[in-house]
């Protein structure tokens, strides 16, 4: 690493020490922020110094502001409306979140922004077209929808000075590699490129070699949940999950914001129906809903009108809701890294949170993979006696995995049989 910023982290570095202009400092103060997070301390000076950057930091560390603040600093006083900055993200939820953060931080700075994503109406397309054709300082876009506009021939990227790829690993996982390279080929070669990723697999480094020039590198807490997350697992058969969740929620009446993740969108409605039958106020979010319906659910969740949201992994990244008390993994995530992103929805910005994962007999190996990735053994909580015994598994250390033994076929809880589980 070439920069002293990589080794001089300060416990309580204030934003006033990062050489940002007065308008931005006023906006930051107005939003109630005083101290910069580690990723902000390390990234902001590099962006201000016009260095290309590849940064790896876990979810919830403040990385959005780490690139938005220095870019807004550079844009202060910009007179024309040409597109200066292109931010590419994997999901429309993340596009909306980032644009909202730009609007908040640019309250005292005259900077325009527009989010470009799919799922809207013809009117939305026209609004996006106007922003791309006439020019807007910052464009935040998903790859597929942006490429659709580019193919129409009216997008002018000739004055782009900054390219940001956020959640780059997720975009590659979703199959956007070719789309990204096509979009990047339309940009000026002379630009500043910033790549942010929660993980750093080889495919990310290969992409970085193609699009970054002599980049600085920041690596913080790769693939580990925030320290404030209390993690635990239950070893459970599938037909025990609904009554177990009922008990978990009943024991935590003071929890006002809860996300339940499932790996299958077909299960979302089943889980929501089961929760409602048990008296819990819940809504589901999946790709089956259109954009407005999804945003309406999220508005209700943010305002605490909706206590529980059941979601697929579309929400595990790119949704910024503060003070989520509890994340429940109804299904063990297929990829160990997805566990980190799901769990990262809670304990954001140095708060506390809880994450509970339900592991059936088929997902034991996934649990072992998660523990190896996070280099920690997750606490196992015994099944409540009234629900019967779960599958047997000798919990192992992250380095050594012991085989698990199957019990005879389980016939269900002793007193009640869950429905719609």
Describe the fold and architecture.
It is a single chain. Residues 1-7 and 395-421 have low confidence and may be disordered. The protein is globular. The N and C termini lie far apart (50 Å). Helices cover 35% and strands 15% of the residues. The chain has 421 residues and is of the alpha/beta class. It has 14 helices and 14 strands. β10 (282-285), α12 (291-302) and β11 form a beta-alpha-beta unit. It has two domains: 4-220, Rossmann fold, CATH 3.40.50; 229-387, P-loop containing nucleotide triphosphate hydrolases (Rossmann fold), CATH 3.40.50.300.
Question: Top keywords for this entry?
Answer:
Rossmann fold; disordered C terminus; single chain; 7-stranded parallel β-sheet; alpha/beta; 14 helices; 35% helix; disordered N terminus; 14 strands
First CA to last CA: what distance?
50 Å
> What is the CATH superfamily of the largest domain?
P-loop containing nucleotide triphosphate hydrolases
Helix content: 25-40%
Uncertain spans: 1-7, 395-421
Biggest sheet strand line-up: 3-4-2-5-6-1-7
Number of DSSP-assigned strands: 14
Share in β-strands: 15-25%
Compact description:
The protein has 421 residues and is of the alpha/beta class. The protein is built from 14 helices and 14 strands. It is globular and about 70 Å long.
Fold topology:
Elements: H1 22-30, H2 38-48, E1 53-57, H3 63-75, E2 85-88, H4 92-105, E3 113-116, H5 122-134, E4 138-141, H6 143-150, E5 162-165, H7 168-173, H8 177-184, E6 192-197, H9 202-211, E7 216-220, E8 229-235, H10 241-250, E9 258-261, H11 265-277, E10 282-285, H12 291-302, E11 308-311, E12 326-329, H13 336-343, E13 353-359, H14 364-374, E14 379-380
Parallel strand pairs: 1-6, 1-7, 2-4, 2-5, 3-4, 5-6, 8-13, 8-14, 9-11, 9-12, 10-11, 12-13
Helix pairs in contact: 2-3, 3-4, 6-8, 13-14
